[in-house]
Each structure stands twice: as structure tokens, then as C-alpha cells.
Write a structure and sequence with these properties.
The protein has 13 helices and 13 strands. By secondary structure, it is of the alpha/beta class. Helix 4 links the parallel strand 4 and strand 5. The longest helix is centred in the N-terminal third of the chain and has 20 residues.
């Protein structure tokens, strides 16, 4: 099976940092809504559908905590295994949004009850978990799972059991061109959107000769392949090295030696290394140590604190595209479409967890936002109507930018809002918006 990982290379923190998995809890957990007593009758048909674009935001006027019978939603998360480290904040983002929704009136007056199982970053376990959520726990809908390679099996189960699902992804190009689903949507920006951002970055910088390297992740390889395919039409030369470092690679010297040979031969005016945030600093520091001063672009998953694993000097001056801008919402310019949403979420998250959010947390939060918007639009707690609403959401404000779905195009909601940071003095500093 090919390695497929979420949200711009989302399983990239690897075993080296998986020790934080213990903070995610045990194998199986159930997180209840603040109130699970049935003190009020269900209100499935009493609330009118909301406007599609009027998604709940952090600044929504409080209506008090939700009561009523809880609506069960379930998720299989990588609380242990190689995905545990990034999944920690992803899970926290989900919980933060659920708690916010419940504290502000819930959904149609009813609280959400989140049920979580650990899939250990293992596909068969994830499938077993989702089967249990649907058949035994009788959840109304599922969100996630975390790992990219689990999305398609989860969508198949959603279709089989006719249960609404909001997955994160990102969808691969193959998936985007494949089966269209009736019961699920995917949210995260995939290689098509990321490549578009890189092509626009190349044009903005005036680069004409690019040397590129990507690790083994599908999102990184697809982004670079599409960028290479666009080279002739956009007036630049693009050379993609055949080397694909594994996520477990620790000795980058052989790759650095090959890169130096290419640099001396091709004389590029920029280097793009679309890699995970633990592998990239070694490439950046290694090139600096060899005297390379060319502009260097990292993969979008490097818009994450793990990119500082070798210290800020290792990545000083590096350019990093970021889906949504969650790496530093305070640094976004006034007027940026999602700045207020990102700032509000950062405050909520910081208050709850005593740490700033990252894009994994934002991605998790957006899954809940999308599901809640569809439930509000449906106007009743009806699975078929909510699934239909999911596939017709338009211009939905989320932390990753406006999301749009249709029955013919339900595999990638976030299609823009990528920004460019440059690392200066240990900070993500805004350069420009990309798409």
C-alpha cells in the first residue's frame, strides 16, 4: 500500500516524537458533551435551516449551553502509533470545537457527544473502530479519521451504512478523479491546490530554473509532479530529483551530495524541498553548511513547530507555504479573509490547552465546523438530509479558507487561502498570499 498521509503531509512527526502519544490517553475513550441528560425533547424539526455560508464562528452570540438529547458523532484517531504526535493537536482541535458548539446552543438545541477510539495508526483497526461506532454506538455521523491512507476505507463504510462523514484527507489526484461519494466529503487542500500555490510563488519570485526534492509522502510527490507538469506553460525549468527520502531517514548526507552535484550542473536559482518538518531542517542546515545560499522552499507541512527541531538557525530565511495561515494568525495582514476566525480559534485553543494551535488543530476543528453547518442547513437530525447538505455547502467559512462542495466534486473543500511565510529570527513572517 502506498503511503498516504493527511493535510499536507500530516503524519510527519514520526516515531522520533511519538513519545508524546501518552498525552492522548488510552486505547478507547469516550468524551461526552457537557450535559448528557435528556432534559428537553429532541428538536429535530423545530429549527429552520441556516444559510450555507453562515457557519458558526468563535464570535457567534452565546445562546447558553445546549441541553436536549445528545447527538453522537464518532471518530477513529491515531492516539498511538506513528501518527500519535501530530494527532494530539488534531484531536484537541476537534474537542475544542465540540465544546464551543455545545457551550453556544449546540446543534438545533442539542449537544454533540464525541466518541473517540484509538486506531493505533493502523488501517484494519481504524476500520474496526468505525464499524463499532456505526453498528454498536449508533453514531449519527463520523469525522476523520486522521491518517490520509484511512480516508478511502472510511468513506466506503459511510457509503455502505449510509452514515454522513466529514474526512480531512487530503485527497490524492487519483481520488479526485475517481468515485464520487454521496455520504461523505473531504476538507483539506490536496496536491492540486498546493501545486497552484507553488507555481504562483515561482512566478512572484521570478525564478526560471528550479531544482526540487520530495520525500515519500503522496502529497509532496503529487505537488512536485504537478508543479513540473506546469513548467513549460509558465516559463520555468523544473528538475525533480528521483530520490525520495523515507520518513525514517536520518542520514541525509548522500542526498545532500547528490543535490550538490545537481546544483553545480544545473545552476538553479531556487530549490524546493517538499518534505516533512523533521526531514527538512536537515536538508536546509546541510545545504547552508555546504555554502549554498539559494532561496529554499519547504513543504507546507513545515508550517508547524516541529520545523524547529534543529533550532531556528537551521531554517533561517526559508520560505514555507501554509494552507490557511494557522501557523501565525497574528502575522497575517489585516483584511486577510480568515484572520478573525483564526485569531478567535487561537484564543479558544490557548485557553483550553495552554498552548497555541497548529494547522493540525485547525484541521480537526474544521471537521466539526463542516458537519455542524450541514446539520444546521438540513434543519433536522436526519442522516440523508445532512449528507445531501454536506455535498451542497457553498462558501463555508473555515480556518482553512472558504469550503465548497458539490455532488460531483466532494473530495476537496479547501481550494485556496494558502499564504507564504519566511522564517526570520525564529518567527513565521508573512510575505504574501498565494491563492
Amino acid at each position: 500500500m502506498r503511503k498516504r498521509y493527511i493535510m499536507a503531509g500530516l503524519l510527519v512527526l514520526l516515531l522520533a516524537v511519538a513519545v508524546v502519544a501518552a498525552a492522548c490517553g488510552g486505547e478507547t475513550t469516550t468524551t461526552a458533551a457537557p450535559s448528557t441528560e435528556t432534559t428537553a425533547a429532541p428538536t429535530e424539526t423545530t429549527a429552520a435551516p441556516t444559510e450555507t455560508a453562515a457557519a458558526p464562528t468563535e464570535t457567534t452570540t452565546a445562546t447558553g449551553p445546549a441541553t436536549g438529547e445528545p447527538i453522537k458523532i464518532g471518530t477513529s484517531l491515531s492516539l498511538t502509533g506513528v501518527g500519535a504526535a501530530p494527532c494530539k493537536t488534531f484531536a484537541q482541535g476537534i474537542q475544542a470545537r465540540v465544546d464551543y458548539v455545545n457551550a453556544h446552543g449546540g446543534v438545533l438545541g442539542r449537544p454533540l457527544q464525541l466518541i473517540v477510539y484509538d486506531d493505533k495508526t493502523d488501517v484494519p483497526t481504524a476500520i474496526a473502530n468505525i464499524n463499532k461506532l456505526i453498528q454498536q454506538d449508533k453514531v449519527f455521523a463520523t469525522i476523520g479519521p486522521f491518517a490520509q491512507f484511512m480516508q478511502e476505507p472510511a468513506r466506503t463504510l459511510a457509503e455502505q451504512y449510509k452514515v454522513p462523514m466529514v474526512g480531512n484527507g487530503p485527497a490524492t489526484v487519483e481520488q479526485m478523479n475517481g468515485k464520487k461519494y454521496q455520504w461523505s466529503v473531504m476538507t483539506a487542500a490536496g496536491g492540486i491546490v498546493q501545486s497552484d500555490a507553488v507555481v504562483k510563488l515561482i512566478a512572484k519570485m521570478g525564478w526560471k530554473n528550479i531544482l526540487a526534492l520530495g520525500d515519500t509522502l503522496d502529497i509532496d510527490q503529487e505537488t512536485l509532479k504537478l508543479t513540473g507538469d506546469a513548467a513549460a506553460a509558465n516559463g520555468y525549468k523544473f528538475t525533480l530529483m528521483p530520490d525520495t527520502p523515507e520518513l525514517t531517514t536520518t542520514d541525509f548526507q548522500p542526498i545532500l551530495n547528490k543535490m550538490m552535484e545537481q546544483i553545480q550542473t544545473l545552476k538553479p536559482d531556487a530549490i524546493i524541498a517538499y518534505m516533512n518538518p523533521l526531514g527538512f531542517p536537515a536538508i536546509s542546515a546541510g545545504l547552508k553548511g555546504l555554502g549554498v545560499t539559494l532561496p529554499l522552499v519547504a513543504g507546507s507541512s513545515c508550517a508547524h513547530p516541529a520545523v524547529f527541531s534543529m533550532g531556528p538557525q537551521a531554517i533561517e530565511g526559508v520560505y514555507i507555504p501554509d494552507p490557511g495561515g494557522a501557523a501565525n494568525p497574528q502575522g497575517l495582514p489585516d483584511g486577510f479573509p480568515t484572520k478573525s476566525l483564526l485569531l478567535d480559534f487561537a484564543q479558544i485553543y490557548q485557553t483550553k490547552y495552554n498552548e497555541p494551535p497548529d494547522f493540525f488543530a485547525a484541521d480537526g476543528s474544521d471537521l466539526v465546523t463542516v458537519l455542524v453547518a450541514a446539520m444546521n442547513q438540513a434543519g433536522e437530525v436526519d442522516q440523508a438530509k445532512v449528507a445531501q447538505a454536506l455535498n451542497n455547502l457553498k462558501n463555508l467559512p473555515t480556518l482553512e479558507g472558504p469550503m465548497n462542495f458539490s455532488p460531483e466534486d466532494n473530495s476537496m473543500g479547501a481550494r485556496g487561502s494558502m499564504v507564504l511565510w519566511q522564517m526570520k529570527n525564529g518567527q513565521f513572517q508573512f510575505v504574501t498570499d498565494l491563492n
